[in-house]
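Revision sheet: structure tokens.
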Amino acid sequence: MTEIPTKSPAQLPTDAYSQPWSGADRAQLPRVGGEREVLTAFLDWHRATFEAKCSGIPPERLSEKGVAPSGLSLHGLLRHLSGVERWWFRMQFAGEDLPHLYYSDDDPDQDFESLDGDVEEAFAVWRAECERSREIVAGAPSLDATGRERLSGEPVSLRVILVKLIAEYARHNGHADLLRERIDGSTGF
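Predicted:
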């Protein structure tokens, strides 16, 4: 077997790699750990990444739909992610009987389209939903604990919900990357 030569970190050309988002206050991701620790750390990292992509922008610019013909905006993503947190952790896993956020059968896309209201209030709602999600995860006896999917009636494990949310944030952080770069040229992971 041929050994692959490695370089020490000091020998790596840093400008050849994706640069981190400047000023992002994100915890270091674990390299080892238990399943719950790793999954929740990655979800929190993605939450912090999304918040960083929205930071430092005047509130009125967060509602800009910057990539036509898409209706996406950072404000709309914020509202959507609030609803996703509530839907998966509170309504489906914990079984809480709550109204949807930014959704109705008559207006299913209001999270992206009805961008009235205070952006700071939308951030407060999102942060509260994230905090409640963390409480639910921390209080679950294991990742094998199940809730019930409302649409199918089938059981869904906390493990699957965590993976779904990581994927949801990863996808929308990619959207946020493009929207933020369009607003002021800022880039980074």
